[in-house]
């Protein structure tokens, strides 16, 4: 019996949610790294604007860079947390798969005895 981890268990929706979360975080990280690269190419006296509602507000370049760095650090920490959760769910699914295979083996042995 070839059963993928979490395929027939209650952890399947949780696993999918964790995968989706990880993908969203990866996308956010990519966007913020691109912003960091843009900041690296900016002249020191260049103006930086932040969107606030429907308008743009001037923001200090150093503050904007700091905000992006903090976001990157936060997202990286969240990615690590999401990956840990994915490993936990995969382990849980593998354990459930092994239990299912063991039960099926026991059932087949009993059927052959009868």
Automatic annotation (TrEMBL):
GO terms for biological process: chaperone-mediated protein complex assembly; protein folding. One of its GO terms (molecular function) is protein-folding chaperone binding. This is Prefoldin. Gene3D superfamilies: 1.10.287.370. Residues 58-113 form a coiled coil. Keywords: Chaperone, Coiled coil. Belongs to the prefoldin subunit beta family. It holds the Pfam family Prefoldin_2. It comes from Tilletiopsis washingtonensis. InterPro entries: PFD_beta-like, Prefoldin. GO terms for cellular component: cytoplasm; prefoldin complex. Signal peptide: none annotated. The keyword Ubl conjugation does not apply. The keyword Coiled coil applies.
